[in-house]
Write a structure and sequence with these properties.
The chain is of the alpha+beta class and about 800 residues long. The protein is built from 12 helices and 45 strands. Strand 18, helix 3 and strand 19 form a beta-alpha-beta unit. It starts with a strand and ends with a strand.
Length: about 800
Amino acid sequence: MNLTKSLFSVCCLALSVQWAQAQEITFFTPSTVRVVKNAPDTSKETGLSLVVTAKPEAVKVAKKTSGDVTTYSSSAITVSVNTKTQQVTFADKKGNTLMQEGSMGFNPITSGPDAGRYKVKQAFALPEDECIYGLGLLQNEKMSQRGEHRLMTQSNLEDYSHFFQSIKGYGVYWDNYSPTRIDDGKEMALESQVGTKIDYYFMYGGNADGVIREMRHLTGHVPMLPLWTYGFHQSRERYKTSRELTEVVDNYRKFKVPFDGIIQDWQYWGSNYTWNAMEFINEDYADYNRMIRHVHDVNAHMSISIWASFGPETKAFKELKEKGLLYDFQTWPQSGLGFWPPRMDYPSGVRCYDPYSQEAREIYWKNLSRLHDAGVDAWWMDSTDPDHMEKPGDLDQVRPITDPATGKDFMGSWRSVRNAFPLCTVEGVYDQQRAVDSTKRVFILTRSYFAGQQRTGANTWSGDVGSSWENFRKQVPICLNYTLTANPNVNTDIGGFFANAYNRSHCDNTATHNPLFQELYVRWMQFGLFCPMMRSHGTEVYREIYHYGNPGEPVYDALLAAIKMRYQLMPYIYSLSWQVSKNDDSFMRALMMDFQTDEKVWDNNREFMFGRSFLVAPVLEALYTPETANQTDPISGWDRNNRSLYQEGFRADWNVKKTYSVYLPDGTLWYDYWTGERLKGGQELEADAPLAHSPLYVRAGSIIPMCQGDPQFASVADWRNLDIAVYPGADATFTLYEDEGDNYNYERGQYSTIDLRWNNKARTLTIGKRNGSFPGMETQREFTIRLVDGTTKTVTYNGAAKSVKL
């Protein structure tokens, strides 16, 4: 419902006194309302939204005016507009104030391509003790994002969604794509560099899950990803030949290290002048067809690096240039020569393409389709920020931008859409592949993101972070705040990207035997086990786990154990992915999502829930080796004094007993996953933290399906016989989800679900009737039900409901 255009005049900020022309209040759902304040001159208004896909529903709204205040009430929220000051206030149905606007402003732009538009600003008056979350991927180690003062613009290490949510159960999406400044002082203000209106969406969900549900309704839901993408992925910067890549694949199968994904990094295309050719024209990959077949023959999958830029000798560059669809600013790589530092007397000529243009997207896919046709399974879209060696005037370049609603182009500056670049380039690939291939689910690993990107299913990693404990600690709140922007798929470079400081000498790979790096790598791997994507990657040090020792040795065994546990939990993880897609759930859950009334968790940046059952407490500090965090650069991980962190002769005693401080949230009972000990919530304790595993707890009232045996890759065929672990202490439910694993037949109903219910008082597990079916489904199987106290019972299941008393 649109409650349109109550005229008002309001004095804006100092030196930018302007009169806003009209205000619009539009309910999209009973819980989500759009607020628009148009600038004085809206002649350049387009109505374009690159992010919002929903249309306003026919919401029943009651209007009431009392004095200077007009209220608009739906069944969920009340919006009050002061007709004198035009300040907007939001309240729940009980009248509790949720959020109130502060000052606003329109500062006219008088020159350049954005002349006639404005810098637009809206502040919100938040209490000092109100925690807010989200914003994006911020390398600040904070859970609550209060007190931030920064310009939000996409980059390698930090990306922004222009969305935040509050501990009070509401969220705000600021629908502007230009670089935007956040200043959180007396007010929390957002100011965008280009706009014709203040335009934001307020949504009330009651809690974080409700806010995420509203945001996904507004901007798109999450598609199912292929089953194999939830397995272990091995990568390195970089495999330099097809032989090198296949040797890694064969070694993992030989040593029985479970894995599903092998990732080919850059330069398989040859020189920088043929940058991102999307072809194997490097002579060391002449047999690329055989390489891809071999990867598939051993039940693995291949992802490959692609970029948002092209070298001048590529087919894509030439066609895009002819049509005027390249940006004219420097990007990576700057030099056409391959060594470091770059020789600028040999410029590469590499340029970014224009993903806002539908025609450019189609040209991009036409070139990428060569790799798709060759059998490459997934895309690693690097530099989707994009890398931008910015010079004065770059942001003022004017491009045709396609309005997705009308298909028509309008002219806009690069500045006006800068932050939406990741969304547009990723969505271009997703949409094009969906249009031509229904047999293979789209999977994209990408470095940057923006609001709405969850609808592509893309998994964003946190950039090229350095290998240090300091950086490792930042990854937990980074992933959690990212999730709280309604994007569930996130991961990090396990071990950190830059690790040369741990070598004895430059890139000699001695870090694989350096206890300082070994401990960091093990703990990061144990954290990665509980991320939506488990991916090992980095430069300067090999990351394949067989470089870290032999079976029976503590470091190797700890790495292998984390990977194996990932595969044991695959039925739990894939069923959770269905909840993410079907019911707007999240994989990595900040503790405030499940324990909103426990104020001790509101700012907890060290622990999280994985699904609704596991409390994960990654060890974020060195326990066996010197941490040396004070010696390393916080971004690159390189030693600030150019010293090696390789300590000759140092040996760690991995068998010493170590503990780590953990907080168990209040309001429930917990089980120590490793010992089965039952513990009360609301307490801090010193948990055992051997190198072999990090502390891990299971919430009482949980059901966890697990694979039996030793799966080497992700396959529903390994789920014929499952363990069903039950953690009593409360009633529990879990829905086991299964399908073919890698096509879109699930969208047509070809999948099955089995509801599992635990009655705590009766000590009975009910295995519900199987709902649905899919090709290749196991019709009869065995479930071994295991209580944490050791009670075990095995039953045969053929699809009919069955109750089992334990």
